[in-house]
Structure formats: structure tokens, C-alpha cells
Amino acid sequence: MEKKHSSHQFRSNTLPALVMVGPVALLLVLLVAVPLVYVAVMSFCTTDEYYNVVFKFSLANYGKLLSPDYIKIYGQSILIAFITTLLCILIAYPFSYIIARTKSKRKQLFYMLVIIPFWTNSLIRVYGWRTFLGTNGWLNNALQALHITTEPLDFLYNQGTTVLGMVYCLIPFMILPLYTAIEKLDGSLLEASSDLGAKPVKTFFEVILPLTASGIFSGSIMVFIPCLGYFFVSNILGGGNSDVIGNLIERQFKSGNNWPLGAALSIILILVTLLLVKIYKKLGGDMDSLGV
Amino acid sequence: MKRKNKKAFHGIFNVAFCGLVYLFLFLPISVIVVNSFNATTSKPYLSWKGFTFDWYVELWSNTSLLSAFGNTMIIALVSTILATIIGTLGAVGMYKYKFKGKGILNSLLYIPVVIPEIVLGISLLTIFSNVNIPRGMLTLILSHVTFCVPFVIFNVRARLDGYDNSIEEASMDLGANRIVTFFQVTLPVLAPGIGGGALLAFTLSIDDVIISYFVNGQTKTYPLKVMESIKSGVSPDVNALSTIILIGTIVLVVLTQSNLLKKKKEE
Questions:
Q1: Residue A6, pLDDT score
Q2: How far is CA A273 from CA A215, A267, B262, in A?
């Protein structure tokens, strides 16, 4: 024991620590921390008439953030994200429960079937919904063929289809943590609860739900936050009233060419993210489980 | 008897509910697959004009689509390899050593995971344009490595949780140096975590739209090509390529899964 101790003291840890942690530290500082700080700085800048960024302190962008048009979009963006998250929980919870606790031999297959669709490009899958729901799409053709409707119905281009696309893109991020949490549930606890006379509803709310809440929390974070930024979903499926904050940012960095304003809009997303992560941690959420 | 009925009802309900969810998940994919066989030649390629394999042939002459797909594979492979190396080293290093700024480094790690991709995308765009790095393959790879590394680290870390440090000490006490110990003792134990992290990194990279959209310059990846084609209607050869990719991944999964199952049985 003593020998081991002394031999350790002779091994300096500085070089190995540098070799191992250096690359990731360099990467995160140069490509995460510095860029974000730079965006924060840029949000206080303006542009000249050629859309070049002018580094002169100004609060003009933050003034623009308060315009009624923008505020309306923050509102609908949060509404879309909220409904999406809620729907994801309502669909993913029972689904994950059933496949995580099935005694079927094909359990592994059921799990893989959730993941497989997500190896096809997400844009083209969202476009698949547009094809399905369009006036000339499968659904309308089927409805007309069955003589349920006589004319094609307008399913597309509203907040509802945007929510549909969001739920579609993000639901695996709810299913996977829930699956993990539910699979860990100790079956004997459920038996104990029912043996002690608790009704299934009571067992659910007082035993199952609290033990799987961590999955709901991390799933909600991973659904709600991206939802605010997924501009391509509302571009493909949404109509006039389905822009999210991501659409506003995208426009400033692409067609609008006002990077400082886009940067200020990004600050909103950063603040919302920080707030939600803070709540998540307060509820006892584990940050590492967000990335596995 | 009543109880039995109830159970049967539960069973039917469960199957029906899960069936509906799978239908939801696979519906747009079936649209893609079916449309890849659509004989229509007029935009936006929506009405069904009969069955054909033509688009699978046509695909091979669509050089811009194929080169975009090639770019996606190169970017995914290179970023996965880099992210896996950097992430594995980082995870082990952060687990073993104490150093200044460890807490900050740890918080920085969570940013690419939780922050909306668009924010990461525009922040990388602004910094690349500020330091005048020409946008293209290089910036795409740098960006992909950035958002993949944390996922590798979390997966490796999950393995490290139950890691027994004494096996490394034993290896070194038996005369192996640090490097030999790392490759022969540490890595084999962490392998499942590293593999899981690498697979996740690869998946994230090939599907990335948002971040690539801001840092690509003139270089097109396959998802960006799809984005471009959506404006005029996705042509069936794009669907054909997607179908091939889908079948390819399913075959890959079935092969690896059955391999795993075999190994489990042998054990």
C-alpha cells in the first residue's frame, strides 16, 4: 500500500492531463465559448448601409426586439413549443411504458423501430408529411376515393401542421429518456403498492410517476428548447401564423442580412435555455442524462 | 373471468396504441419510399403516374446530388473519428485529473447539447467570418466535431461511472506505462461507451441541417441538397437515394443486432 502511494507521487499529472483534456478544452473554448460571447457583443452593434457589422455600442436591436410583431411571434413560438412538448409527453409516456415493460422477446426490435425512422434525413421526412397532407396528397385522395369528401381539404400550412411536424421530429427525444426511466422501474414496487391495496390510478400517481419524472423532465427540455429554433419545420409545413423564433433568426442571417439583430434575437433563445436548464436542475435533473 | 377480460382489453389497447404510434413514425417514410418509384416527370412530382425503377438509374447521373451525399459521408466519418478521439480522451482526463477550470469546462460541455442548434450555427458562422476562415468542408467538419464531442463524452462518462481505478494502478504497478495502460486496460473497458458515442455522433452528423446550413459556404451536404430541392418539389431521385440510405441502415442494424445476439448467446 505504501509503495503504491509513493510511486504515485513520482508520476506528474500535468502532462497527461494536458494531453487528454487539452483538445476538448481548446475546442469548447474556441468554438463554443468565444462564438457565443461574440454573438452577445454583436447584439449591441449596428450595420452600415452595405449590411456590414459596425462595432459601435447601440441598444437599437434590443429596442427592435420589443416590436409588437416580434412579441407576437415569441408568444406563438412558446405556444407551439408548449403544445408540442405536451403532446410528446401524452403520446410518448404510454408508448414507452408499454414497450419498456413488455415481456415480448421482440422488445429490442420495438426499441429499434423507434430509432430507425430517424436515420432518414429529417427534412425529407417532414416533406413526406407535406406530400401526405397536401391537396393532391394521399389523405385527400383517399378521402375522395372513399366519397367522404368531394373536394380536397386544406390540411396544410397552419399552426396545427407545424405542431405535427415538431412532434414528429422531436418525439424520440421524449421516448428515449422515458423508456430508460421506465425500464429501471422496479416491478416489485408496483406489486407492493397493489398488494397494499392501492388502486392502479393511485399506484400510477404515487409510485410510477414520481419514479419516472426524471425522464419527463429531461425529455421536455430536449423537446421544448429545439422547438423554438426549428425553423425548417414551420418553413415546410407552417402557414403565416406558425413562425418560431428560429425563423426570425434565420431571416436576419440569410435574406435580411442584419446579423446584429439576428444576434440579439439569439440572445432571447440563450436566455430561455438558461432559464429552463436552471429549472430542470432545481427539479433534480441530471445534466448528463440529456446527452445519452 | 372479469379480470381476464380486462387483461385482454388492455392487451388489445396496448397493441392498437403502439401500432398507431409506429404508423405515425413510419408514415412519411412510406411516402418517400413510394414516391421513389413514381413515374411522374413533372414538378412538383406529387401525382402518381405509375411504377418505375427509372429514378434509381437516374440517380447515378445526378452528380451534384451524389457529390453532396459524398460530402455528407466524408464530413460524418471525419467528424465522428475526431469527436470520438477528442471526446474519449477528454472524458477520461476529466474523470481522472483535477485541474483549474474543470467546472467551467463541464458547463461548456452542456451548451451544444441544450442550446437550440440555430444559435450554435449562427455563432459559428459569425466567428468563422470574423477570422476569415473560408466556409466549406473545413468549417463544416469543425462545427460537426463541436456538436458531437459532448455526446461522446456523456456516453463514455456513463461507462466511467462504474469504473474501477485500481485496474489501472495494477497495470502500472506491473510495469506498464501510461500509454500502454490506456490502450490495453482503459480503452477496452470503455469500448461500449465509446462505440455508443461514436454511433450517436455519426447519426447526428449525417442528419444535421441547421448548423450546416449556416457554415457550409458553397459546399453542399445531402441534407442541404434536400432543403434546396424542397422549394421546387423533392424529385423522386432524392427519394430514391433516401430509400437506399434507409435500407442500408436497416441492413446494418440487423447485421450488428444479430451479431450482438449471437455473442450474447455464446456467453
A1: 42
A2: 18, 10, 44
